[in-house]
Specification:
416 residues, mainly alpha, Growth Hormone, Chain: A, 16 helices, 84% helix
């Protein structure tokens, strides 16, 4: 097994755990409360560290061996999931979900703490992994390598993981978190066997403020990276805006079980896998500018169609279209970023970029709960649960219009 194959396999294992957790976090929270804002707080805790720890993660990534950083963060996540599984096991059987507040405050608090720890470790782990990839493949194969990596991640994270998570929830609630700890342990064994130089070669040893400032200076000097980061940030905001509503909409409006809901999420995974595998070919045929513009044009209608879908099959198809666009966009944008940023700066610039791109996720999750809660003041519960899809769709159309020409100017600027 080559180093890149070991890297992909390890990423697949950790993403299998993340995929199981995609269903488990929100579904278990919904068993404790029916309040949309309180349900949203659990995934908010998972994503909040991206806004708080992205800059320190970039600094650390450029200073240490990236392979060892990945190993340490996977160990932290394994322990956090073990703790969550233990807390859930001790709380069984669960009382009926509360319409206001939570039925088990200490369990809900335990979930929030575990989500914060998992999310914090993920910030450091993911930044190190994305920064490390160019050391494993040649520069001219980055699009293909990223596509292969994401297709493997999606296969486990969004296709197998949610379905497996739904099955485990139906079998015994703590199993969903217990399996995650095992998956992270297996991933650590694979990463530990990687051979190579995974620490940036640097001659400067300055203070942390100066080093982070250097990352900001590089990003300011490349307008294309700023445009891609901000656009991706709003895309992530809209994607998370529908996340909490999707769980409650599936349960209350469409009457889906955990198993059917997991399979519906798997429909999105098919679209994402297809986008990951075809992204490099689409970019080669259309060029990066037309590829990214096309994906933006399709994304808005996809969000709107998710809100209009009358059942699980149509919801899965709309979700698949949205994920296809997202991952074709990622193949081009991440490969462009990896190619433009020097290795010694890659951790810091990547973390600043991801702060802009991923830091919007908690805001999207909070807005999801706020939109539903405000919507219930003026309309029915069922209609309120669909409003986040409309907000995401209309917002995507506005953003696509605003950045359309900036993308073309940015690529023209780096080609000169």
């Amino acid at each position: 097994m080559t180093a890149f194959q070991r890297f992909i396999t390890a990423s697949g294992m950790t993403n299998l755990a993340d995929g199981v957790a995609v269903v488990a976090w929100g579904w278990i929270a919904s068993l404790l409360t029916r309040d949309a804002l309180l349900v949203a707080l659990v995934p908010v805790a998972l994503r909040l560290p991206w806004a708080l720890l992205a800059l320190p993660a970039g600094l650390v990534t450029d200073r240490v061996d990236r392979r060892r950083l990945i190993l340490g963060m996977d160990a932290v996540r394994a322990l956090a999931f073990l703790g969550a599984a233990l807390a859930l096991g001790l709380a069984l059987p669960l009382a009926p979900a509360a319409d206001e507040g939570v039925s088990s405050p200490w369990l809900y608090t335990s979930l929030l703490v575990a989500a914060l720890v998992v999310g914090g470790a993920e910030v450091f782990r993911d930044n190190a992994a994305q920064t490390m990839l160019p050391a494993l493949v040649p520069q001219d194969r980055l699009e293909r390598a990223n596509g292969q990596l994401w297709s493997a991640e999606l296969l486990t994270n969004a296709l197998i993981g949610p379905a497996l998570g739904a099955f485990l929830i139906g079998l015994w609630l703590p199993l969903a978190f217990g399996l995650n700890a095992l998956a992270y342990g297996l991933a650590m064994l694979l990463v530990a066997g990687l051979a190579g130089q995974f620490k940036a070669v640097r001659t400067d040893q300055r203070g942390w403020k100066a080093e982070i400032g250097e990352g900001f200076a590089f990003l300011r000097a490349v307008p294309l990276l700023q445009t891609l980061a901000i656009t991706t940030g709003f895309w992530n905001l809209f994607g998370n805006l529908i996340l909490v509503a999707l769980v409650l909409h599936a349960q209350e409006n469409l009457g889906l079980s955990a198993q059917v809901y997991g399979l519906t999420l798997a429909g999105g995974a098919f679209g994402g896998i297809l986008g990951s595998l075809l992204g490099d070919r689409i970019a080669a045929r259309l060029g990066p500018v037309r590829t990214m513009q096309a994906m933006l044009a399709i994304s808005g209608p996809s969000f709107l169609l998710m809100g209009l879908a009358p059942g699980p099959w149509t919801l899965a198809l709309a979700f698949a279209a949205m994920e296809f666009c997202s991952f074709v966009w990622n193949v081009v944008s991440v490969s462009t970023r990896q190619r433009l940023i020097p290795d010694a700066l890659r951790g810091r610039v990547n973390s600043i970029y991801r702060l802009l791109a991923w830091g919007m996720m908690p805001l999207g999750l909070v807005l999801s709960g706020v939109v539903v809660s405000l919507g219930e003041l003026v309309t029915s519960r069922g209609t309120a649960l669909v409003l986040p899809f409309w907000a995401a769709g209309l917002g995507s159309v506005v953003v696509a219009t605003l950045v359309w020409r900036a993308i073309a100017r940015g690529f023209a600027g780096i080609s000169r």
